[in-house]
Write a structure and sequence with these properties.
Elements lengths: L9 E5 L1 H6 L2 E5 L4 E5 L3 E2 L5 H13 L7 E6 L8 E4 L2 E3 L2 E5 L8 E8 L2 H14 L12 H6 L6 E12 L5 H8 L6 E7 L8 E7 L2 E6 L2 E5 L1 E6 L4 H13 L1 H18 L3 E5 L5 E4 L3 E5 L2 E5 L6 H8 L7 E2 L1 H11 L10 E6 L4 E5 L3 E5 L2 E10 L5 H19 L12
Parallel strand pairs: 1-8
Antiparallel strand pairs: 2-3, 2-11, 3-7, 4-6, 5-6, 5-21, 9-10, 10-20, 10-24, 11-12, 12-23, 13-14, 13-22, 14-19, 15-18, 16-19, 17-18, 21-22, 23-24
Helix pairs in contact: 2-8, 3-10, 5-10
The structure holds ligand ISC.
The site of the ligand C=C(O[C@H]1C=CC=C(C(=O)O)[C@@H]1O)C(=O)O has 17 residues, from strand 15 and strand 24.
C-alpha cells in the first residue's frame, strides 16, 4: 500500500472532539506518514496466535473502502487486539490543531506506580530469579538453558508515571510535540474503552521497528541495551562508547536478536543479521540496534502474521517468553494494556509495518499514564535500571514540557 515515501501536504483542522467522532490513526515516521479517518469495520478481536488468519479472513470478505487494517496489539499476547478498517486514508498532513498547539498545564503531583524504590526491589527480585546459567560468564550453557524453557534469562520490567492536566489533552498536540525528534515514528491511535468512559488514546514515539513487509522483503530493527543522551558532547560520546562495549547490554541485546532470527529463519530463504549491534540514537537515548533483513519463502505471509509471531520479543518481554510473562505479571503492579504492544497497519497484499509501542502514554481526558521499561539480565543493577527507566520517560516528559525539578516522583 505505501511503497513510496509520500510528499504531498494538505492541512486539516482537528480538535479533540472531531478526533473522537472520527477516530484518527496517525503513524508518522522518517519515510512516510499514514493517516486514516473513521472506521468501517472492526477486525474481530483475538490473540496473537490467530491474528494472521483473522486478517486473511477479513480481507477475503472485506467491504468497500481502503483495503487496510490499522491498530494495535496489546502487550499480553493472550489479550485482545484492536484493529479496524478505516473509512479513508488521508494524504500526509500538516496538522493544524484547533486552539493552537497548546497542551494544558499539568497540575498536582505526578504519581509513580510503582514508586522508584519499589521498582528497584522488583529488579532485585528479578535478578535473583534469573538463572545463574544465564550469567554472562557462562554463555556456553545459555542455549541449553533456553532450550529447556525452564530458566529465566531476561525479563523486561516496566513502571509508570501518572500525570494530571488542567483539562482534556488533545492527543494530536502531544504527537506533534513528539515529532520534533525525527529519528522516531510517532503514533496516535484510539484505544478500546468502556462505554461510559472518556475516549482513550495511545500516543507515542517509537524508535523500534518490530516488522516491516514489502512483497517478500522483511525487515526488523530490534533495540535493547540503553544509555541516556548527555548534553555535553564529550560525555555523550563516552556514554555511547561505553554502551557499545558493555557486556551486560550486549547480552541483553542478544536475547532479542536470537529470538527474532529464530522465529524468521524457518520462513525465509535468506536472512541477514550482523553479528554485532550498532548504535542507534534518539534525541534522549542511545540504544544498541540490529537491522535484520530477510526474503520470505512464501507470498502468503502477511505483516500481521509476522507481528503476531514475533510479539512480544525479548525487547519488551523476556526469555523464555512464558516464564518472562509470568514474572512480569507477578512483579508489575500496573497492567501494561497496549504499552509494549505493537502499533501499525497491514494491507490486503500482506504488506505492512508494525512498531513496538514504547515511549508512549495512555491518554484519557485530562490524565496521562507514561510507561517505561528496562531489560533485566543476570548482571543488572537495580539503581541503574531505575535511572534508565527515568531517562526513557524523557521523550514524553520533554514533549509535555516537564523538567526534573517538577518531577519528584521520577527517581525518589
Ligand atoms: C521497554 C522499553 O525499551 C526497550 C527498547 C529499547 C531498549 C530497551 C532496554 O535497553 O531495556 C528495552 O528493551 C521502553 O522504552 O519502555
Amino acid at each position: 500500500m505505501i511503497a513510496q515515501p509520500l510528499s504531498a501536504t494538505t492541512q486539516v483542522d482537528v480538535n479533540a472532539d472531531e478526533a473522537r467522532q472520527s477516530p484518527l490513526f496517525v503513524l508518522r515516521g522518517p519515510q512516510y506518514t499514514l493517516e486514516t479517518r473513521g472506521c468501517i469495520a472492526h477486525l474481530p478481536s483475538g490473540n496473537t496466535t490467530t491474528l494472521g488468519q483473522r486478517v486473511k479472513d477479513f480481507f477475503a470478505n472485506a467491504q468497500d473502502g481502503p483495503k487496510v487494517l490499522v491498530g494495535a496489539l496489546p502487550f499480553d499476547p493472550h489479550a485482545l487486539d484492536a484493529l479496524y478498517q478505516p473509512a479513508a486514508l488521508s494524504l500526509p498532513t500538516a496538522l493544524q490543531v484547533s486552539g493552537g498547539a497548546k497542551l494544558p498545564a499539568l497540575i498536582g503531583q505526578s504519581q509513580a506506580e510503582p514508586a522508584p524504590n519499589y521498582y528497584g526491589d522488583m529488579v532485585a527480585r528479578c535478578v535473583a530469579a534469573i538463572s545463574s546459567k544465564f550469567s554472562t560468564s557462562k554463555l556456553s550453557t545459555r542455549k541449553q538453558a533456553a532450550d529447556q524453557e525452564a530458566h529465566l534469562g531476561k525479563a523486561v520490567l516496566a513502571r509508570s508515571l501518572l500525570l494530571q492536566a488542567e483539562h482534556t489533552i488533545n492527543p494530536l498536540v502531544l504527537a506533534k510535540r513528539l515529532e520534533r525528534d525525527n529519528s522516531v515514528t510517532t503514533y496516535v491511535l484510539p484505544l478500546p474503552q468502556a462505554i461510559d468512559e472518556a475516549p482513550a488514546w495511545l500516543v507515542g514515539a517509537s524508535p523500534e521497528l518490530l516488522i516491516s513487509v514489502r512483497g517478500r522483503t522483511v525487515k526488523s530493527h530490534p533495540l535493547a541495551g540503553s544509555a541516556r543522551r548527555l548534553a555535553d558532547p564529550h560525555a555523550d560520546a563516552k556514554a555511547a562508547a561505553a554502551l557499545s562495549a558493555s557486556s551486560k547490554d550486549l547480552d541483553e541485546h542478544k536475547f532479542v536478536v536470537d529470538a527474532i532470527v529464530a522465529a524468521l529463519a524457518p520462513l525465509c530463504s535468506e536472512l541477514d543479521a550482523p553479528s554485532r549491534p550498532s548504535l542507534y540514537t534518539t534525541d534522549t537515548m542511545w540504544h544498541l540496534g540490529t537491522e535484520i533483513v530477510g526474503t520470505l519463502k512464501d507470498d502468503d505471509i502477511s505483516a500481521a502474521s509476522l507481528a503476531g509471531l514475533l510479539h512480544p520479543t525479548p525487547a519488551v518481554c523476556g526469555t523464555p517468553r512464558q516464564l518472562a510473562l509470568d514474572t512480569i505479571h507477578q512483579l508489575e503492579p500496573v497492567d501494561r494494556g497496549f504499552y509494549a504492544g505493537a502499533v501499525g497497519w497491514v494491507d490486503d497484499k500482506g504488506d505492512g509495518d508494525w512498531y513496538v509501542a514504547i515511549r508512549c502514554a495512555h491518554v484519557q481526558a485530562d490524565r496521562l499514564r507514561l510507561f517505561a521499561g528496562a531489560g533485566i539480565v543476570a548482571d543488572s543493577v537495580p539503581e541503574l535500571e531505575v535511572a534508565e527507566t527515568a531517562a526513557k520517560f524523557r521523550a514524553l516528559l520533554d514533549a509535555l514540557g516537564v523538567d526534573d525539578t517538577h518531577l519528584h516522583a521520577l527517581s525518589k
